[in-house]
Amino acid sequence: MELLLARTDRGSESTSGDLSVSDEGGDRVCHTVEDRIRTGPKVHGETAIPTGRFRVGLRTDSPKFQHYYERWDWYRGIPHIQSVPEFTWIYLHPGLDHRDSHGCVLVGFDLEEYTVSGDLNHRIRSGTTRPAFEKLCKLIYAELDRGEEVWITITDPELE
Length: 160
Hints:
alpha+beta
């Protein structure tokens, strides 16, 4: 399965985008929010990951997400974006805004706008992140169960 994260907006605090399954006609799965893109040195936990194509696997032993096993009967592991240069333990996971990201990609069905010093930013609308996460996980689990690989390509028109 090929996932495509197409970044759409950059703000002073966040980067938003659309996540789709490219081998299913490009239908959008959900929206995304990441940390902001930095042109200078990476700031740990506050910088969006670079563009590129990365394998997605499951991490089943992440201490941060162990409580998901108790919370959701469908949960089998956190989607892990692997081999990202200068980054470790990058996940696709629920959350609302850049403060929840820590370098990861947050997912949700709806975005809402907010401004910081007149600069437009986006966050995931409350109540839409968990259902989007479930939908995405089930797509990934099904592919991995069939023995298929899952990849994500991250694009940013401002960097291309």
